[in-house]
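Sequence in, structure out.
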Amino acid sequence: MKAIILAAGMGTRLRPLTLTTPKALTVVNGKPMLERQVEFLQEVGVSEIIVVTGYLAEKFEYLKEKYGVKLIHNDKYDVYNNMYTMYLVREYLPDSYVIDGDNYLDRNFMLEAPKTSMYFSARKPDFKGEWMIRYNEDYKVTDIEVGDGDQEYILCGVSYWSEQDGRYIVGKLEEAVEGGNFVEFWWDEIVKNNLPNLNVYLQEIHPDDSYEIDSVADLEKVNKLLAAKK
């Protein structure tokens, strides 16, 4: 089992913090978010961890010695959305976790041996522009809708992809990128558009298990929540 951490973005909404620090290395609760992700992955037995860098790539170099991760650079991080980022590391996708580098994980909810592809998902309150999961009585994902809502299951930045589903997604990534149809797309759109051919399930987590840190306001809000829990 492997893991891919997507950490190429510029994090413009987190400026001025991200003028000198990549978004994924923003310190939350005393530690860079990405370091916490790596440690959680290693706790569940993931030894091969690939970090995709872009903006301020040199800032990630220390992770190779500290954690033994592999760094792969996306030199077009400021041109394309993350479908291209995933394309660059597509060979690692089968039997792999995928984590967005801008997510603070407060609890290690990852599994040592996932049996199917899954989106780790929580019901989140009062959100806008999120990816909402639709599922059947067996919790198999049947659709993903982007929009506003309240107390719906949404994508929380952590997923796992089986060998079979991973290989299928790789083929679709190659079709999209090599056909030129990818510039403004997110890699989850490949999943969304091919769900009937995939075996993906919703894996419920607690709403406080994962927080996306996309802006200074997000960071301040999470810091307050964490301080209140101490």
